[in-house]
Amino acid sequence: MVMPATQWKLPPLVKVYEALGAIGDGRVRLEDSRRATVVSSDGSKTYEVETSADGREVASNDNGSYWQGYLGYPAIAVLLARGFYRPPANVTDALAGVAWKELNRKFKNDWARTIAEVGKELEQAGHDPDAVRSEAEAVLSFLRALRPVRGKRIRPPAEKSATETR
Predict the structure, then answer these.
(1) Rounded to an integer, what distance in angstroms lies between the CA atom of residue 27 and that of residue 41?
(2) Which of 5, 72, 89, 108 has CB atoms 3.0–4.6 Å from 65's, for a disulfide?
């Protein structure tokens, strides 16, 4: 008997921002038609993501996907890199270079505070934080409509030591 596929929970909005930033930073690498890797914003981890041809079945070994059951930013970034949804370059460029792990730690994973801080940084850099938020919400709507289901569970990677990330 085949078990029915479990649908991913929708991620917090900040994870869409992180995915857009991963695209802007060029941290997504498509290995073949199914497999991809995404390097974390601080370079300490490399996540594995597998997608079906239509993007409906997704497996990812980031912490959010593995432990919290929502579609994590590496999986979202891979869906974007594969062209299932194409965010405008001005938005991905605006979010390039954001130190997500540092911000999330600073604000103790208070996603609203992280987004507010990123909004201030965007404004100071001459970007439109409202346009970025609007695009992040559009990606969430795309995910809601896609209704992706879980692929196989892959354990999250261990953090590389400081010498390995240099």
Answers:
(1) 8
(2) 72
| Helix 111-124, helix 129-146: angle, nearest 10 | 130
Write the single-letter amino acid at 90.
N
Report residue 154: phi and psi, to 5°: -120, 130
User: What is the pTM for the complete model shown?
Assistant: 0.92
Helix (H) or strand (E) run with residue 111 in it: helix 111-124
Long-range contacts of 88-94 (CB under 8 A, 24+ apart): 88/135, 90/127, 90/131, 91/20, 91/131, 91/132, 91/135, 91/136, 92/20, 92/21, 92/23, 92/24, 93/24, 94/24, 94/122, 94/125, 94/127, 94/128, 94/132
Q: Do residues 46 and 107 make contact, with C-beta atoms less than 8 angstroms apart?
A: no
Which residues lie below 8 Å from residue 81, measured CB to CB, with a gap of 6+?
23, 28, 30, 36
